[in-house]
Protein 1
Amino acid sequence: MAKRDESDEAYVVDLCSQVLGETALTQHKFDWLLGDPGQSGRRAKLPVDAYWPGHQLVVEYREVQHERPVPHFDKPDRLTISGVHRGEQRALYDARREAEIPAHGLRLVVIHPADLEADSRGRLRRNPETDLPALRRILAHDSDEDRVTDSFRTWLLAQGWTPVNPTDRWTDLEAVRGSERLICEAKGRTSEKGIDADIAYGQLLRRMTSASADIRYALVVPTSSVKAAERVPEHVRRLLRIGLYEVTDDNQVRPLS
């Protein structure tokens, strides 16, 4: 197995540092990002792959074992302190990072092998000529949709929801609270408000794969898109279990249903 400084993760972090013009703090630990309690009751700090303080940015490089079962990494016959095997614990901790990092005012960017030049096993070919431009695009992505999503995530946490890894990888945000599950589609400011609202409703419809009454859906839009989203009447949204939420220009969340 490659040493960490020879790994794909180290390669990606090094290229990100080149793009950002700042050296990363690798395997950085925050006081507020904690694992589950061990036998002694203590909670270890969870590391992040890389943190750039000047950019208030955290990058996580998620290799294939974060996306699908890999027995070599998951060790399904061995339980962790979380009471689940390593693969399930990895998913829990990934979800915790995705919830806590934006909640503490930092931007989180998750990079996958498929975002760069990789082989069928998810191993990077390490071609800076193609990988550097790809990373520039990924790291520059700081759209209004990110603002809307992050604001709604923070609001959900305050309401007792726990963000989790989405069942559908294209879902913007998914959260659970007790037996309830909320599947969210977020849109940012756009010049095509009506078209984007229609697309968002269509995306939610495609994710309605379960008849469970415990699953609800959310369309989250900025103030400028509220009228376009309200073109679908409230009684229709109610039948489809779609809640409409506004994120104001000062990042406040207002339920509209």
Note: Helices lie at 8-20, 71-74, 86-103, 128-140, 144-158, 193-206, 226-229, 234-239.
Protein 2
Amino acid sequence: MESMGKKPRPRRSFTPEFKAELVELCQRGDRSVGQVAKDFDLTETAVRLWVRQAEVDVGQRDGLTSGERQELEALRRENQRLRQDVDVLKRATAFFAQETR
């Protein structure tokens, strides 16, 4: 499937300070989300997500705060590592049990 002549954008990362500034521009009402996105060569979707997350962080909207999201990601990584450790221990137990017979 062709992308209709558009090249995919390279993945960029932005500082929390930059995101906060753009969110403030949108929330002040000086410019719309679409105008902010256009002015800074961003996608409207990204800016909307940043605004939505900022609203969650200050309690204006339901959802996971940024801190809770970070904690959840860390717990998921730890859970995955622990599952791998358990898998290795199961294999080692099976290996040594077979060797002692």
Note: The chain has two domains: 13-63, 65-101.
Protein 3
Amino acid sequence: MRSDECIFCKIVRGQDEASVVFQDDHVIAFMDLQPVTPGHILVVPKRHAAGLEDLPVDLGLRVWETAHRLGCALRLTNLRCEGVNFFLADGEAAFQEVFHFHLHVFPRFAGDPFRIQADWRVHERAQLDATAEAVRQGLVALDTLDR
């Protein structure tokens, strides 16, 4: 997707509406149109990056820093907030719908509608060790990329 077609880029440029909570030179945070719970915020880098692989590390740190601050702020509001989730969907298989990197920050409370359904079962140590080795190999490959 080109940045001139991206809804988040349009928000950054002021070409589309958003209920902005915070912005600086690098990030913008605004209310999600389809909130999981009241207070659901999206933290978006102003520079277009479709996903993690397109996002410079320093900009990712700025997104996280902003999300951390907003998560703390949610706890100090009059919104129902007994906990906070940070949710990142990177790629279609991970349920990313808008292909401009963004981090969800939303308040949680007992009985709220958000659920993650998974097969939560303990794995054997050998399988965990093999998976850890695969991730270590991925780190080696990442270090060889010209980023």
Note: The beta strands are 20-23, 27-31, 41-45, 83-88, 103-108.
Protein 4
Amino acid sequence: MILAEKITEERKKNGWSQEELAEQLSVSRQAVSKWESAQSMPDLQKLLRLAEIFGVSTDYLLKDELKSETGTEILKYAAEQSSVRNVSMEEANAFMEWRRKTAPTLAGAVALCIISPALLIFLAGLSDSHIGNVSENMATGAGISVLLLMVAAAVVIFVSYSIHGQQYEYLENERIETAYGVTGLVQERKRGYESTFTRGITAGVTFCILAVIPMFAAIAFGQPDYIITATVSILLLLVAIGVFFIVRVRTINGSYVMLLQEGEYTPEEKRYKKKAEIFITVYWCIATAIYLAWSFQTGDWNKTWILWAVAGVLFGAVKAVMRVRMKEK
């Protein structure tokens, strides 16, 4: 249905004559007649006024493929428009600066979690080999104490980060619309950060790959068990360093991606994440519970860490299946 037909239909639906509609628009009856016969088109101001008095959207009037809107559809359209959050230049700059300053601290907290069992594993190896008069109780007590202190410090950082970041949660979860000039500014900063981002990711991945070399070398040269156990601690240290680099640059680059609504922050991805949020929380809570139960029951802290690698691989596979199922629905 074209614009001329829609004007005629809406006018008749409201029980107005051409003259009555013309009076409301401050135009002549002949002008309305020409609109309805498709001899001419109303200007922008008249289109806005027509949409207002008919109680429809301008999209409905201008787009031929849209059907007549009911009151429910109009309300839905208005709700969709109002659900979009506007982001000013000041908000965008404040968010990018906050992410830049907190990135090293957040990355350090993640690294603390990874390296937290390193001392426990190292002391357990010494205890099993009866080296340095390190008893099993001493190894367990000192190792777990350091582990808990590191995890506690990391949790404090995560909680603080979460509290201060609540004001920006809408950027991650809601549809946004940036003010004039914001998109250009963010794109420029993102381009300027690309080389640093690439170096950080490359360094992080390199550390993670090289982390296994000491352990494999110790096994290949037939080193004693305590040496092999010590290399596991070195592995965790190198992985922690690698993850620090990755998390730091991703946190900063992520601020640009969020504001530009790219990658995992497109409107479609935000809808998916809302649906998957409960599953992700339950999954990692179960993984943590299994890890702690297995570790405390067996005391094999130098072996149970492998659970996190398995959980990570399975998580990616389960998420992929879940995404396909959601799209099918």
Note: The radius of gyration is 31 Å.
